[in-house]
Specification:
Layout: E1 2-9, H1 13-23, E2 29-32, E3 49-50, H2 61-80, E4 84-85, E5 89-93, H3 96-111, E6 118-121, H4 122-128, E7 136-140, E8 144-146, H5 148-161, E9 165-167, E10 174-178, E11 181-185, E12 190-198, H6 204-210, E13 219-228, E14 239-241, E15 254-257, E16 263-266, E17 270-271, H7 289-295, E18 304-314, E19 326-329, E20 336-340, H8 346-365
Parallel strand pairs: 1-2, 1-12, 2-9, 5-14, 12-20
Antiparallel strand pairs: 3-8, 4-8, 5-7, 6-7, 10-11, 11-12, 13-16, 13-17, 13-18, 14-15, 15-16, 19-20
């Protein structure tokens, strides 16, 4: 039986960041990933936005780790040549009621220590995004975008440079509690880990059950995207968001100008049973027309085409509006550290999540 101080289940951005931070504490660390490559699920199926942090309730992990993680992420990208752009975004209002919602977001964001937030008027919007119609907006200059695939690759490289062992195509099939840890069983080997970090994303609830950890449910929530045709890409310059979805399940169908110049419109919200269903019963392209026209002038159906989709790993179902990240030592099995329910702003928060997980792991070792 192979022996390791800490095994991390899942090589998305949260798992890789945690492994890198744990190895930096001098602990032998491995990452088990069910796919042949890292980051193939939620980590690279998203808008690629580096969030400011103004949406999340004060005092929550999402609020704190988003702001801390954003600062760490910009530093990591600059140090490691990860393609990104601190382009800023506007959240727009079309009437007085929506403007009041933006004022509340401004207050919340400032309370969360988000830098540079300001209310702006129609003149500012016209200069920045001439085709956007709005009466006011909340400007977030610290928001940006990142090439998520490049970030995953560089994060894996940084983790391996810290002596993390990456075990691809190694899905966890079982776990047996031991007096001093857990015996992790894959299809090829058994690994004795003194501690295990559950960063399994969409499958974190299944992994927790295997490890004898706390019971919780991950709710798969699919988000779909359309995009502007190449001829229309020039009418959007940066990031443009509506007010958040009233259900509390998302930030609203928004516009993202990618690093490659494409303009994405999405994501939508659809709770579903399967955790791997990205394509069945996709929305027709005309479902995106009304959201596009609500933001942009001069968009017609022929200016849109379908794009990709992603699945969020949510800790709350469709009848609830918010659940925080679950990052803590497990109450049922103290050899397990949970890093579950990492939906948005998980990409932005990833390095801060890794640091927090490493702190929890180190508390048990005295390091």
């Amino acid at each position: 039986m192979e022996q390791i101080d800490v095994a991390v289940i899942g090589a998305g951005v949260s798992g890789l960041a945690a492994a890198r931070a744990i190895a930096g504490r001098g602990l032998s660390t491995c990452v088990l990933e069910r796919h042949a490559r890292p980051g193939l699920d939620t980590s690279t199926h998203n808008s690629g936005v580096i969030h400011g942090g103004m949406y999340y309730p004060a005092g929550t992990l999402k609020a704190r780790l988003c702001v801390e993680g954003r600062r760490l992420l910009y530093e990591f990208c600059a140090d490691n040549q990860v393609p990104h752009r601190r382009c800023g975004k506007i959240i727009i209002a079309n009437d007085a009621a929506e403007t009041a919602i933006l004022e509340d977001l401004l207050t919340l964001g400032r309370g969360n220590d988000v830098e540079g937030l300001e209310m702006v008027g129609a003149d500012f919007i016209a200069r920045r995004e001439p085709q956007v119609h709005a009466v006011a907006a909340l400007h977030s200059p610290e928001t940006g975008i990142i090439d998520a695939e490049s970030y995953v690759k560089m994060l894996l490289r940084a983790a391996e440079a810290a002596d993390v062992i990456f075990l691809p195509a190694s899905p966890l099939v079982g776990g047996e509690p031991l007096a001093d840890g857990i015996a992790l069983k894959t299809e090829r080997e058994t690994i004795h880990a003194q501690q295990v970090v559950n960063a399994a994303g969409l499958y974190a609830d299944d992994v927790s059950r295997m490890l004898g950890g706390e019971a919780f449910t991950i709710f798969p929530c699919r988000g779909e995207y359309a995009e502007l045709t190449p001829a229309k890409r020039a009418i959007v310059n940066h990031l443009v968001y509506p007010i958040p979805d009233p259900s509390g399940h998302g930030l609203g169908v928004h516009l993202v100008k990618t690093l490659a110049g494409a303009v994405w419109l999405g994501p939508t919200i659809k709770y579903q049973e399967r955790k791997d269903d990205y394509e069945h019963d996709r929305l027709p392209v005309d479902a995106f027309l009304a959201p596009a026209q609500r933001i942009l002038r001069g968009v017609e159906l022929e200016d849109l085409r379908l794009s990709g989709s992603g699945i969020r790993a949510k800790l709350h179902g469709p009848t609830q509006s918010f659940a925080d990240f679950f990052i803590a030592r497990d109450r049922n099995n103290p050899a397990v550290v949970q890093a579950a329910g990492i939906d948005s702003p998980g990409l932005t928060s990833s390095l801060a999540i890794g640091k927090l997980v490493a702190d929890i792991v180190a508390d048990a070792t005295g390091d």
